[in-house]
Amino acid sequence: MKFFIDTANLDQIKEAHELGVLDGVTTNPSLMAKEGITGEQNIIDHYVKICEMVDGPVSAEVISTDFDGIVKEGERLAELHDNIVVKVPMIKEGIKAIKYFSEKGIKTNCTLVFSPGQALLAAKAGATFVSPFIGRIDDISSDGIDLIHKIRLIYDNYMFDTEILAASVRHTMHVIECAEAGADIMTGPLSSITGLLKHPLTDIGLEKFLADYRKGNS
Ligand code: E4P
Questions:
Q1: Is residue 192 lining ligand 1, measured as CB closer than 6 Å?
Q2: Is the overall model pTM greater than 0.90, yes or no?
Q3: Which positions are catalytic residues (predicted)?
Q4: Kind and range of the H or E run holding 3
C-alpha cells in the first residue's frame, strides 16, 4: 500500500519524506487555508514547492464547479509540475471534466466520494484515483472501512485501473484496516504514519537490550 500525507504543511511533508516511506501528498482548500496559503499566486507557488519535495503524485484541488471552469483550472494546475494530480469533486460537472482530463492524459483524483455508486462513476469516467472519505463516514456513525471493501470488490470485478485512495484517514487503525481492505493508497496526517512505529513491547525490549549491553561493556 502506498502512503500519501494529507497536509499542506511543508515541515510535516519533509518529516514524512525523510522517513523514506512517503509516496505522495494530498491537499485540499481547507488544508491550504490552515497553513495560511491564500491568493492565487501563493497557492500555485506552494503546490510547486510541495512537488519539488516529493517524488510522487501531489493532489491540487480545483475551486470551480462548472465544466469549463474545472477544465481551465485543472489544465493550469497540471502545467505547474509533472507530479500534479488535478483533484475534482464528485459532482456531475466534475465527472464530465474527469472524462475530459483522462482523454487528455491529465491525472485526476475524484474527491468527496461517500458511496460505491460514486466510486463506480469515477472509475467509468477514467479517474486516476478515487478518494472515499472514511473518517467523515465514521463521523456520522456509519462504516468507512466497509466502503473501501465495497469499492475494492467492484473495481476487481471489472478490472478498473482507478486506484483506491482511502482519504480522511484519521489514525493508525484506519491505516491498518485500509490495508486489510485492499486500498491501494491511504492519505492521512503525519501522526497516522508515525503512530505505526509504536508498540510498548518494542520500547521495553530495546531498553532491556541496551541495558544488558551497557552492563557487559562499561
Ligand atoms: C482527501 O484528499 C482529503 O484532503 C482529506 O483526506 C479529508 O480529510 P478530513 O475528513 O480529515 O478533513
A1: no
A2: yes
A3: 87
A4: strand 2-6
